Amino acid sequence: MTAILPSTGWQARLALRIRARWTAQHTPALPSLRPAACTAAFYPEPDGSCQVYILHPPGGVVGGDRLDLDGQLGSNTWVLLTTPSAGKFYRSGGPFAQQLNTLTVQADAVLEWLPQETIVFDGAKLATTTRLELHANARALGWEILCLGRPSSAESFTRGVCQQSLEIYRDGQPLLLERSRWQGGSVALTAPWGLHAQPVSATLFCTLQDSTQVDALREQIQASPATRFAVTQVQDLLLCRYLGPSTAEARALFSQAWTLLRPGLLHKPACPPRVWAL
Fold this sequence. Notes:
By secondary structure, the chain is mostly beta strands.
């Protein structure tokens, strides 16, 4: 796990405790009325399952800022967590921006972790970790989409550092441990064994209900020639990988995968959050 160091920047902490009746707590960055992070909950599905939008009022993150999300799902809860917009990490003059997402899912609960992309501006310094703790038969489907630089503005990632970790455990045993460190301007960004000059890399994970899902996704999802898209199985996880030029394309492909996987995971069709259409 990436070490989280003391910081004097914007300190945002959001604690979600989701039960049959969900509650949320947030800690402000300063002793004022400005919330560091907050939520909005919606119930668009007939069975009453919850969609929670995680809001960060400042809109962007600079060096020295720290964002902590602690989400805990109680037994027999079904929750979709998303964000209304991309996470933006701006150029830093020295200190790292830090982000830690810790998500705990109890037995008989289901988590859909579907944030919009993380955009790392040229010159930014970011350490980000997402840690998922599954208990007993808990299920989860989620994704992480990373964009280095701003391809729409012809901005490459020539300076800065991005450290990224994705950790998934079941009953304390690791299912997936991935760590990467991208240095701005390094050969790893362009080499065939690295990012192959593509600014966007992404991973989708899903607890596997049926091994035929792997073949079904391979057959039904067609990526563009400029894109690398793969589906694999690691233990009881299904993994989709994207490497390409566009966050929009990554979201579109992952949304297709989510639409195909959700009926097997939740026994109901996909219900896209309305905020994705904005």
